[in-house]
Design goal:
alpha/beta, Rossmann fold, Aminopeptidase, 7-stranded parallel beta sheet, 4-stranded antiparallel beta sheet, 12 helices, 40% helix, binds nicotinamide-adenine-dinucleotide
């Protein structure tokens, strides 16, 4: 499928992360949109944002694990737009933990959303898409977890292996009936989205076990860290996905560096060895032990006091982080702010600043030092400075996906998540 303008896309899980990025990309190509998500407020916000940019949007609150609701979604899509050309079965959730510690409710929830959600999408949409006799395509969001079996991701991986095999069979079945509908199975590694906060969408009837084991808490922290330190954005993944659709490419690995881990699994199967540990080949994904947190030197002061440091801070950290032209003026040289600079072996690896009213302004950590604990050290220093300056609490505005990081440092969410230039932000505070 390589014509997008004026055609109809249906996207599940459209209110956040990949789904929202698919919707934005589709709108930029002139597609008309049917957005489905279980989270009503976020869905409304996404729909309003896209409509304001000129897109034609229908938003339908839908729980994809409920076959009846997905059938109604399909009825609405076909009755309002008359056709569906691009279907994204994308909604998903991702709790982690040791495989024997997941509750029956965990299994029901995850298989309901991640597997039955895709099955429901296929059952409700494919028969009518076949009848259209028009160029069309289906994207199922699986994961690299559909090809490997990392520790503490057993339930999620089981669901994503199912999505991969379902998609492969869908490809064959469509061929078998002579259909030209294309299929892509999207298999990303970790990308910063709301996936590590999936618990927000767990139905009350399948409530989480309130007493989490140490292993689950550690697995969750690792997952949050891995997701928030992903280098590709959801927008990048959306652009790659539309390219794959245009090229009718079936397998889409957005992070090809993970392929040796996939091959390692296949080699172990072929040679009768024990399963290969994917983290052994990709240690960057493995949990970080406290002993591995690097010792950094922290300096605090105004920009004047840190004059020597300010140049490398701007050029090494902000430019590196944001990929912008070094000639640009990057930050306000605000003498009233207290700046914190983290050095490791003579190189600036992170910065942050405290505003005079007790707000913590932007914090940045060099990509190579993400997941290393440097951000936490800067944050604690800024909190300490706020306390010595007599602030009753510190506040900050954070991208929603790093919320768990701030929670670990004693911050609490305050007020709703809001959108700033298409990025979910959340206000957080900590009492001193
Ligand atoms: N972010 C990653 O690192 C990553 C990697 C590989 C695969 N994935 C997969 O990508 C897909 C999208 O996730 P994301 O990373 O954008 O996370 P996300 O949490 O930002 O988005 C998922 C969306 O699905 C919605 N959703 C959850 N349960 C639902 C239900 N029952 N019915 C309808 N909607 C529901 C959520 O409200 C949310 O808007 C998921 O299938 C996930 O497993 C994510």
């Amino acid at each position: 499928m390589d014509r997008f303008s004026d055609r109809i896309a249906v996207i599940t899980g459209a209110a956040s992360g990949f789904g929202l990025a698919f919707a934005q990309h589709a709108a930029s190509l002139g597609m008309r949109l049917v957005l489905a998500d279980v989270e009503a407020v976020a869905l409304e916000r996404a729909a309003a944002q896209l409509a304001a940019s000129g897109a034609s949007v229908l938003a339908v609150q839908t729980d994809v694990s409920d076959a009846e609701q997905v059938a109604q979604l399909a009825d609405r899509a076909f009755s309002e737009f008359g056709a569906v050309h691009l279907l994204f079965n994308n909604a998903g959730v991702a709790p982690v933990g040791l495989v024997w510690e997941h509750s029956a409710a965990d299994w029901q929830w995850v298989l309901g959303v991640n597997v039955m959600g895709v099955a429901n999408g296929l059952r409700s949409f494919v028969p009518r898409m076949l009848g259209q006799n028009d160029d069309s395509h289906i994207v199922n969001t699986a994961s690299v977890a559909g090809f490997i079996s990392p520790t503490t991701m057993g339930l999620y991986s089981a669901s994503k292996h199912a999505v991969v095999t379902l998609s492969e069979t869908l490809h064959h079945d469509l061929h078998a009936v002579g259909s030209s509908i294309g299929v892509t199975v999207l298999c990303p590694a970790f990308v910063p989205t709301g996936i590590a906060q999936s618990e927000r969408n767990r139905p009350a009837a399948l409530a989480e076990n309130p007493t989490q084991t140490e292993a689950t808490l550690r697995a969750r922290a690792s997952m949050e860290r891995a997701v928030s330190s992903g280098r590709l954005s959801a927008t990048d993944v959306a652009a790659m996905t539309f390219e794959a659709v245009a090229e009718r490419r079936f397998y889409l690995f957005t992070h090809p560096a993970i392929l040796p881990s996939v091959n390692g699994r296949h080699a172990a199967i072929a040679s009768g060895l024990d399963p290969d540990d994917p983290f052994a080949r990709k240690p960057a994904l493995a949990p970080v032990a406290a002993s591995e947190v690097p010792k950094v030197r922290l300096e605090t002061g105004s920009w004047n006091q840190l004059r020597e440091a300010s140049q490398p801070v701007r050029f090494q950290v902000f430019v590196h982080e944001q990929g912008i032209d070094p000639a640009l003026e990057l930050d306000s040289v605000d003498e009233a702010c207290l700046h914190c600079v983290a050095w490791s072996e003579g190189v600036v690896v992170g910065t942050g600043r405290l505003l005079p009213d007790g707000h913590i302004g932007r914090m940045a950590v060099l990509a190579a030092f993400r997941r290393s604990g440097v951000g936490g050290q800067i944050l604690e220093r800024l909190v300490e400075e706020a306390r010595t300056r007599g602030h009753p609490q510190v506040e900050l505005s954070a991208q929603a996906y790093v919320e768990p990081f701030y929670r670990r440092h004693g911050f609490t969410r305050e007020g709703p998540v809001y959108l700033e230039a298409g990025i979910d932000h959340v206000r957080m505070w900590r009492k001193l």
